[in-house]
Design goal:
about 210 residues; mainly alpha; 11 helices; about 70% helix; about 0% strand
């Protein structure tokens, strides 16, 4: 309801449009955020991890994306950097505008392709909490701007729920209970596998909640 209401306010739409540079193309998060900038942004993201404990650390996400880049890992990394930028600099700063534009572009692409992986769900959940109307802003110059932004905000939620259920995140709590009820294995390798699986289910349960 709040997303739909905000999207119908001309001033809010103008605020979003001012944060996007539609002339920017071929943006790459690894080019926008060198290691030095990543280190600078890290302290500004840490408070958010209290509310999103399932998120990987910024360093880990950066390394994971560099090792195996995908659209969904790019969206999550870009979204995490953008959320940190909200406290590190004005949103009119060139870096913040570039990140906002990249999140808009990647988010729209995700909605069209809906890749079913954890990165996608984590990115959409983060955006729903802190930038629920940013994705789709590039269409805001049209006559359907307000309606379009509202619908895309709803689409973020629908996509996140659909992908989360497809990954069985709605069953994660039951999986945690089931795993904890089993005896602790004595074999070190099996014990590590159990810890890894438990961490995965705990992250899924946190995300679903």
């Amino acid at each position: 309801v709040l997303i739909d209401y905000a999207a119908q306010q001309p001033s809010f739409t103008a605020y979003l449009v001012a944060r996007i540079d539609r002339s920017l193309t071929d943006l790459d998060i690894l080019n926008l955020i060198p290691r030095s900038t990543l280190s600078y942004l890290q302290p500004f993201l840490k408070p958010y991890l209290l509310w999103h404990p399932h998120l990987p650390g910024l360093d880990q996400m950066y390394a994971d994306h560099r090792k195996r880049p995908t659209v969904s890992s790019a969206l999550l990394l870009s979204s995490m950097c953008l959320v940190a930028c909200r406290h590190a600099m004005p949103l009119t700063d060139p870096l913040a505008i570039q990140l906002s534009t990249l999140v808009d572009q990647l988010g729209t692409q995700i909605l069209l392709s809906t890749p079913r992986d954890m990165y996608t769900v984590q990115a959409l959940e983060l955006l729903l909490a802190h930038e629920p109307s940013l994705v789709g802003t590039s269409v805001a110059a049209s006559a359907q701007a307000e309606r379009g932004n509202g619908l895309l905000g709803e689409s973020l939620l629908a996509a996140a729920l659909t992908i989360a259920r497809g990954l069985d995140l709605d069953k994660a709590i039951d999986s945690v209970v089931d795993l904890c009820s089993r005896p602790q294995p004595n074999d070190p390798k099996q014990a590590q596998q159990r810890r890894d699986l438990l961490a995965k289910h705990l992250a899924g349960a946190s995300l679903w909640q």
